[in-house]
Design goal:
Strand order of the largest sheet: 4-5-7-6
Number of strands: 12
Strand content: 15-25%
Order of helices and strands: HEHHEEHEHEEEEEHHHHHEEE
Structural class: alpha+beta
Largest sheet: 4 strands, mixed
Number of helices: 10
Distance between the termini: 47 Å
Length: 254
């Protein structure tokens, strides 16, 4: 492992470890198990290992953003960092998320590596979602653009802590949002997401970002959608601009 680390290769497969050590597959497996017990390596994926440097020994693994790109590449999974984890890259995570959130095209199990947790969420039209690259100590990682992150937060509100949390993050994320780009990517998300997003941006104090999205919703929306999909909307007040039934109170934490 020292040889790999000196080359700056902190991410490797069991086959690469075997080659670096110059031993048989069984001997390499025993050596890796021994190193894992010592906290020197960890395995966030089958046959995939990370070297754990001293500064991350308490974590028991590399941070997720340092190994997810290589793991996804090796396993052939298109991905992007999304939701609260993407918001954090854009400087808008109100609280550090307890899990690293990744959007994928097909369902897969979460990863637990030491104290690091990675949750995966299936996103339709994954390839149509605009992303940005961010630097990490081990390379670059893809994350949804500010506008795409805003849509996803609304679409996956239950997975990020509810609409209050969504509105809170939107109040910070809105500084990075381009009104025109919101409209451009709206077609990659269900129409109710656009309706709810417009309403929530206004509630989060970012009404100046909604003009283009308002035009999109006005052109395409024919039905009223509930603000909270899981709650009844009969008899609740309506926002006619966004065609949203206000069936839950939302309070952003500024």
């Amino acid at each position: 492992m020292t040889r790999l680390a000196t080359r700056g290769q902190y991410l490797f497969s069991s086959a690469e470890a075997r080659e670096a050590m110059g031993v048989s597959a069984d001997a390499a497996k025993l050596a890796l198990n021994r190193l894992a017990k010592q906290g020197l390596v960890a395995s966030p994926g089958r046959g995939f290992y990370v070297i754990v440097p001293p500064e991350y020994r308490a974590l028991g693994c590399l941070p997720a953003e340092q190994f997810i790109p290589e793991l996804m590449k090796r396993q052939g999974y298109p991905y992007y960092t999304g939701l609260l984890s993407a918001a954090q890259f854009h400087g808008a995570a109100h609280h550090r998320p307890q899990e690293f959130q990744v959007m994928v095209a097909k369902a897969r199990r979460p990863i637990v590596c030491g104290k690091v947790r990675v949750a995966f969420f299936v996103r339709k039209n994954l390839a149509a979602v605009p992303t940005q690259s961010f630097n990490t100590p081990r390379g670059t990682i893809l994350a949804s653009s500010p506008e795409a992150t805003a849509f996803d937060l609304v679409g996956y509100q239950a997975q990020v802590g509810g609409l209050d949390q969504v509105a809170t993050v939107l109040s910070e994320l809105s500084e990075k949002i381009s009104p025109e780009k919101l409209e451009t990517i709206a077609g990659a998300a269900p129409l109710p997401w656009a309706q709810r997003l417009g309403y929530l941006l206004e509630q989060a104090g970012a009404a100046d970002k909604t003009a283009a999205l308002k035009s999109y919703v006005g052109t395409h929306a024919r039905q009223v959608t509930p603000l909270l999909a899981a709650a009844a909307m009969a008899g609740t007040p309506r926002d006619e601009t966004w065609k949203v039934a206000i069936n839950v109170d939302v309070e952003a934490e500024f």
